[in-house]
Amino acid sequence: MDDNQKLAELLFPDVTETVEDLERRFPQRALPEGAKVTRFAPSPTGFLHIGGLFSAFVDVLAAKSSGGVSFLRIEDTDKKREIADGVSGIIEGFRAFGVDFDEGVTGFGTEKGDYGPYVQSCRAAIYHVVAKKLVQEGLAYPCFCTEEELTALREKQEAAGTLIKGYFGEWAACRNLTFAQQEEKLRSGAPYVLRLRSAGDENRKFTFDDQIRGKIEMPENITDAVLLKTDGIPTYHFAHACDDHFMRVTHVIRGDEWIASVPLHMALFRACGFRPVKYVHVAPVMKEDEETGGKRKLSKRKDPEAAVSYFVEEGFPKEAVQEYLLTLINSNFEDWRRANPASSLYDFPFSFKKMSQSGALFDLVKLRDVSKNVISRMDGETVARYTLEWAKRYDPDFYAVISADTAYLTRVLSIDRGTAKPRKDISVWSEVQGSVSYLYDALFEPDYALPDNLSNADASQILRAWEKVYDAADDKDAWFGRIKDLCEPLGYTPNVKEYKKNPDAYRGHVGDVSTVIRVAVTGRRNTPDLHAILGVLGEARVRARIAEALAVYEQ
Fold it and tell me: Is residue 291 part of a domain?
C-alpha cells in the first residue's frame, strides 16, 4: 500500500464504497438523443428572487423542449445562510407560478426521483467516496493551516505583490508534507480541510463553449481549492462537480457571476474523472435605474418586485408571469405567440442562442400588459376560480362577499369574455374587486356624476322614460332598439354621426342616453357591455338602482 493509499485510509476509514459503485447506483439516464438534464439548485434561504424564477424556468424549458429532465436540488452546505424550513418558501414560489420540476425536492423533507438525495446535506457519503478516490490518486491532501496562518499568507502575498493570490504552488504550505508528517498531525487530532492538488499552470489557458456566449478562453485554475471543510461538509465547488455528475446533469444554467468559477469547476471534473457539463451562463435580470437612467440588477432591498412573493400577493396569474418571462428569455417568443395564440408555451421552440448576453430588462408595466391579455383569454369560470383562491388568502372581506354565490361570481366575470374583443380591464387578481364592485350591493358605491353636456334634469327625464319601456326579457338588439326609440322624443339623435355633423340640432345622441342609464345602474361611465350587466343584476335590482338615482337627480 503506497503512502496515498495509507493517507486515504487514515482520512476515510469508514468509506468502503467506491466511485464505481456510485456509477452503478446512478446510471446514465435513458433519454432520447439530445435530451437535456438540468437542475435548479438554490440555497434554503426562503427567499425566491425573480431572477431565480427566471433561471428555473429556463431549466424547465430546456428540459421539456428536448425531451429531458429538470430537477430541484437544495444546496445547503452553507449553514450560515440557511433559515428554518427555508425550502418551503422556495417550493411555494415555484408552485405559485407553475414551474414544475420532474424530480427533486417537493417540500420540507420530501422529494421524488431516482437520483437523490436531492438535498446536499444528505449526500455526505457520496462526497467522501469521491474525496477518498482523489486522495488515493494523490490529487487531494489534508491542509492543517490555521486561520491565522492563512491570514499571514495573504499578507505576505500582498507585500510581495503577487499577481495571483491564494493557496497554490510555493504558498501551499501543506502540499508537500510527507506521509509521516500528515499521519502525526492526524493522530494528534489536528483539524484540517481537504484540498485539491491542482495540476493547473498559470501560463496555460483553456476554452469552453458557453451555450449563450460561445467560446470563452480563461486561464487554468492553479489554486489548491478546499474540497471538504473541517466538518467534512463539501464546499459548493466540490459538491457541484459530484452532484452534477452522479445526477447526470448535461447543462448547468446559472448566473454569469459564476463564469469566474469555471476554471476551478473544470479542474474538479478533470481530477474526478468526470465528463464536464455544458455551461449556460445567464445574464442577470435588470431594471431601469430612475436615478442614473441606466440599468441595474433588481435588488432585494430596493425593489419589492425582486421577490417572487410580490407577484403572488399582487395576484399575477402564473400563466401571465410565464408568458412575460418567455419574452425576456427568448427574443422571438412574442412573434411566435402572435402566430400561435392558442398554443401551449411549451410548444415554443426554446433556444439558448436566443437568450440575451447583456441582461433582460424587467418591466412591470409590460408585465401588466401581458397579464391583461392572458386574463382576457380566460373564461369566466377560470377567472372566478383564480379570484376566489387569491381573495381567500389576501382579501378575506372580499372573499366573504364573492364566495357566498360562486355561480353569480362566474356570471359577473363572464361578461364580455369569449368575444372577438374580450375585456381587458383586469391585469391582476387584486384588481378584480375594483372591476366588479358595482355588481355587488355590499360593495356598490354609486357616483352619479354626469358628463358636462348632461344635467340632472336631463338624467331624470331619460331615466323616467327608460324605466317605462325597460323589459328584462329583451335581447341585446331589442334592448338597444328601445333606447334608440327614446332618443328623438327626448331631443337626442339615435345616430352618432348625425350628431357630429350637426350638434346644435340635438341635445345629444344615443350614447348620452345610454350613459345616463349606465351611470344610474353602475355608478360608472365606462363598463363592459351594459346589456349583459343589466342581465346579471336582474330586473329588481336594476329598478331599485334607477329609483335611487332618480332620488338624487330630482332632489
Answer: no
Grid coordinates belonging to 316: 399575477
- DSSP assignment of 178-243 equals -HHHHHHHHHTT---EEEE-----TT-EEEEEETTTEEEEEEPP-S--EEE-TTSPBPHHHHHHHH
**Residues 154 and 200 reside in one and the same domain:** yes
Q: Indicate which CATH number applies to the domain containing 137.
A: 3.40.50.620
Q: If you average pLDDT over every residue of the chain, what do you get?
A: 93
Which residues partner with 49 through β-bridges?
Answer: 307
Q: What is the DSSP pairing of strand 205-210 with strand 214-219?
A: antiparallel
Domain check: are 212 and 229 in the same one? Answer: yes
Higher pLDDT, 47 or 305: 305
One domain for residues 423 and 473: no
Exposure of 346 by Cβ count < 10 A (0-12 exposed, 13-18 middle, 19+ buried)? exposed
The string of DSSP codes covering 470-501 is: --TT--HHHHHHHHHHHHHHHTEES-HHHHHH
DSSP letter at 173 equals: T
What's the Cα-to-Cα distance from 543 to each of 76, 294, 352, 438, rounded to whole Å? 64, 57, 60, 15
Query: Which three three-digit cell numbers place residue 451?
Result: 358628463
Q: Is 32 helix (H, G, I), strand (E, B) or coil?
A: coil
- Residue 305 falls inside a structural domain: no
Please report whether residue 365 resides in a domain. Answer: yes
Residue 85's CB is within 10 A of a number of other CB atoms, namely 12
79 versus 50: which is more confidently predicted?
A: 50
Is omega for the bond preceding 117 within 30 degrees of 0, making it cis?
Answer: yes
User: pLDDT at residue 86 above 80?
Assistant: no
Looking at the domain assignment, is residue 24 inside a domain? no
Q: Are residues 332 and 256 in the same domain?
A: no
Place of cell 369574455: 417
What is the domain range of residue 246? 3-16+124-282
Do 82 and 49 share a structural domain?
A: yes
162 and 238 inside one domain = yes
Which amino acid is it at 50?
A: I
- The model's pTM is 0.86
Residue 84 pLDDT > 70 = no
Domain count, the chain: 5
Same domain, 130 and 98: no
Give the pLDDT of residue 109: 84
232 and 138 in a single domain? The answer is yes
Rounded distance, CA 305 to CA 449, Å?
37
Q: Could you read off the pLDDT of 15-39 as tens digits, one per residue?
A: 999 999 999 999 999 999 999 999 9
Whether 404 has a pLDDT exceeding 70, the answer reads yes
Domain end marker among 122, 138, 164 = 122
Contact 417, 384 (CB under 8 A): no
